[in-house]
User: Fold this.
Amino acid sequence: MAMRFDGKVALVTGGNSGLGLAAAKAFAAEGAEVVISGRDRHKLDAAVAEIGGQAIGIVADVSRVQDITALMREVEGSKGRIDVLFANAGIARFAPIGSVTEAEWDGLMGTNVKGLYFTVQQALPLMRRGSAIVLNASLAASKGVPNASVYSASKAAIRSLGRSLGAELVDRGIRVNVVSPGPIETPIFGTFGVGADDLAAMKRQWAGDNPMKRFGTAEEVARAVLFLASDEASYITGVEVPVDGGVASF
Assistant:
């Protein structure tokens, strides 16, 4: 049976855990040659072993443009091109506005917005007509979330980039779409910077507020990413696909 990504090269930034790893495994299962990037060599090696196939891992911190440039140089040298880019790498920090520092602002925006933007920019020379880009935003791009002002602003910027880059690249035959996960059970919760009790209470509230009364899985997000990246979505560009149990809509 033919697979959707036979003979294609998929680059997944932040592919060593969570949504990125789930997407990378799904791409590989459908025939893609997968390249993942991340900041930690040990985690990358473990993820590559989990993905299997022809997967390779490249150390890169997307908040550093020089790392992005080096990443694309390595991809070009090993694979020659990029057919699918899942710009997924990102971080999450929650804090009330009164306690946010300039360094925290710069760190989050530097990864989530600058890093994503220059990842797309640097990948484009390796992408040909018929390629696809999927950007990872969030439910927080369209819903007010207390104590998440910086994170939410970064994700709203990503949603905006999906529209404007989609419009800019359509004549080059490159589609750009956005996936916006809602509450998904991933390791990113451990990076929120809140105590265990507060985190547990937050997760209970989010699950209770969700129309489906549960968290989603990374695999459910990955299925949406693969659809947007595949030829099945050949007439779709500039859109946002929420994977959130209906919370943004109801």
Notes: The mean pLDDT is 94. The first helix runs from residue 18 to 29.
